[in-house]
Structure formats: structure tokens, C-alpha cells
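note to self: dont lose this again. the chain is below, predicted strucutre after it. 521 aa total, dont forget to put it in the shared folder this time
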Amino acid sequence: MSRSEPLKISVNPQQTGLVSERSRMSYLAIKRLVKCLALILIVLSVSLVLILKEALDNRVRIVYKEHSAKATILKLVKPISTTNRIQSVVGSSQETFVNQLQWTKCRWSSGLRIVSSTTRSPWTQMGTKEVYFHSAYWDDRGRAHRTHAFVRVLAYLRGSAADKPKMQCYYPEWRVSIQAHVQETWLPMWDQDPDEQTFRSFLVNCRVPPGVTELQSVSLSTEVCDEMATLKVVDNRFLALPKRKKFCLCVKPLLFNMQDISKQLIEWIEANRLFGAEKIVFYLYQVHRKVSKVLDHYVRLGVVQVVPWSLPQELNLLNGRDLKVFFHRKVWQKRRSEVLPYNHCFYQNFNEFEFVLPIDIDEFIFPLAVESWHEVLSGHLLKHPDEKQLIGSFSVRNAYFFRSWNPKSNLNEDLVIEAFTQRSANLSQPGFSVKSFMNTDVVVTLFNHYALSALLPTQKLTTHLNPDLIVMNHYKATCPNDFGRQCEENFLKYSMNDTSILRFVPKIKARIKAVQIDWDK
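---
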């Protein structure tokens, strides 16, 4: 073949048709793959849009997960329609909602208002209602008995006995609400028909959501998921470590602005320290300048805590003299006003102490056969070991030492317990005018004399300690006015000499001598 001749290529018609068929099949396969991928992308896109919409539409979610047969709260996730402000949810099992509690899921709060302990007034009013909240406390004692934890809220309500509003407890951190259990801290047999101007003491019990181990705040309202009044939750569980102490005393608000009782107060404090008091909490309206010096001295020693006390609204505007006149005219209001400070003292100290003792400064509870309260109660519980978990208060019976029986007494030279040795021959009957060691493992509410309610329905409110082992000497001018003929017949008519407390006088005088207070400073 010469170089100038063109190259000739022969093509087989059968080979050409085979190549075209392969190309067409590849094209169809690619087309089907593209359609599948497009469909998958569409499905994924729609799913993503739905997920995002669900996340944006639902502002509050809670899911309960069972763990070790207990309900444990986790973060977020069953949707609630935003078209409604609230939606009720009922638990599906006892593990999830103990005792079929009915909770309400709430939307986000508009703004959390936490009341600080540094605010000028300790009272928080619930909207325009005449309900005033003082403080809220974490209480998980029930969980040791497989029941509930609570936030306990101390409150005054102004109104008649028929006024007992339904309240809702709302937890802003968890966006759930539940109806509160509201109980009056009072015995119905006393002052049965208070007028509409009377301030009455209440404990508002707010159940804690299952699995929650701490809370920052609680809001209370008459409406579900509302924040008419928001309080910080005080959690003093750390005070129980490493070991609880024995005895804390609580003294109702003192109003002695014109009377110097400093000498008698030192005697009373030192006597109670000798008997076993480790802490004494004094609530104050107003006191004399020298009384303030005594209290300041013991505050520096770490023995005394002073809590300034006030009443809501216009009662707080009264000065000391006017308040004293007001309480003289309104005896039942005075007594009702004393109950809430006692319960405040209990919840401030129930984690740190085994027993809380509400007591007045004219009362001396002392052991007869041993040296301390601890020995008396330890001996009693040794004989009745179940009572520490079953009894709310251990009561001590009262013997009146009326000053009219001791006209020659000289309080400038003698101690009170030296000057008055003539007492009523009869002790107070069980349950009447007693004072009690409140068992912090059991008590929920209390008043001046004994426990009013207990943690569990199987627990009892009180038992009386043997008066041959411990008794209370009550030093008064005469019978209380409202006791009437009952006091005259039972106590004034019969008297006897009693010097059993005098064996403590040398030790008490030695302790008093060691007290150094600069009265002129």
C-alpha cells in the first residue's frame, strides 16, 4: 500500500447495534437511580421540616422514664398544642405518678419573679387576694417512707373560718402545676368563728414532681400555671451533716419594748443551756435596749439566733405600744399570730435537730431524776424504741407557780426559780397547757403545745412523758384570763411547796456569773 492511499476501515453492522443497546440500558438505569435519590431527598426534607415544626411549636415537654422501678424525670419531650395554654396529663402508672397524681403541663412562664430574703418585707401577697406567703421549705422526709417530697409554704390568710382558697403550686423550672393541699395550723375547737379581719396561719403543701431532687422556686396562685406569688425554696438538708444535734428551742415574738427583763432572760437562757439546749431562736417584735444587749451577747457565742418578726399589711405599721394594746384587745389574734413563727422555726431547723421545743421565757422544763433532757428522752425511747418513728411530740405536763403565793420574793437578789417555790398541787391534765419536744422525723405542723399533724397517717400526734421524770415549772402572776373558773378550780384552790428545781441553782448561778456584758457600751 502506498503512503498516499487513504486508510480504509470496515464496520460490522451487528457490532454497531450491540453498542447502541448497551448505552440505552445504562441511561435508563441512571435515570431510575436519579428518581430514587430524588424521592429519598424529598422524604428526608419533609421529615426534617416536620421535626423542626414540632420542635418550634412545642415550648414545654416532659417525659417520664422508669428507672430502677422509680420515676426519673428527664429532659423534654411529649408535645403539647400551643393553641391551648394548659393541658392536663394523668399518669399511666403508680411508678410514674404516685397515687395517681394529676399534673398539668404548662407553657413557658412570662418571667420568673423570685423573692429574695433581702427584700424589705418578708411577706409576698398573692395578687389582690388577702393571702400572704412568708417562706417555702424543701421537705423530702416522706421519700424515706416511699411517699412524696413536698415544698412547705408558710402563709397567713385574712378572713373568716369559711375562707380557705384552693391554690395551685407551679414549678417554673419544670413547667408543671399541681393543686396544693392547704391546712390551717390551728385547732377548730379554739376561736371557732374568727371574723373577716383575723389573720390565720396556714401551711400550703406542694408536692414535688417525681424524681426531682432539688428546686429553686415555687409559684402559688388560684389559677393553674400562674405566678401570682413566687418564692425561693429554702433547702437546709446540708445542716444534717455529719450528724444532727439534739435540741433547738423556739421562742414566740417578744414584745417588751418598755420592760427590762434582761436579768431574768440570762437566767432562763443559762438554765436551758444546762438542761440541753444547743440553739435558741428568739422572734422579736420589739424589746428593751438591755434585752437586745443580752441577745447580741449570745448571738456572738453562736447560741442564739434572732429573727425580727412582723405581720402583714397594716398590722406591721403599728408601733410597739399600739401592737401591745391591739393584742390585749385581740387575744385570739395574738395567739394565732404566734403559731406561724413556731412553724417557721421548725422548718428552719428540722434538718439540723432531732427535737424542736416551742417554749416561753417564763417556763422551765427540767429533769427530776437525771441531769438533762437527753437522758430523759433516751431513757423513754429505750423503753419504747418504736416511738421515735411513730410519735410526733413528747409532752411535758405543767405546774403553775403563781406569784401571788410568793409575796415576799425578791427578784433583785434571787433567781426566778429561787423566789417562787409554791405551786399548784395539781399538774395540768394531759393535753392541757403542756409543752412538747417536737420530733422532727414525724411532725408536719405544730402549735404552742403539741403536734397538729404528722407525716404519715399511721403516726400519732403526742405522748406524755412521765411527770415523775420531767416537769415544767410555769411562773405566772395568776391564772390566764381566758382560762376562767377551770384554772381557779384546778390550780388556784390547791397549792404545795416544791423545791425540786433548786438543786440546779448553784450551777446556773455559776454560769450567770461567767456572763460578761458591757451594759454601758
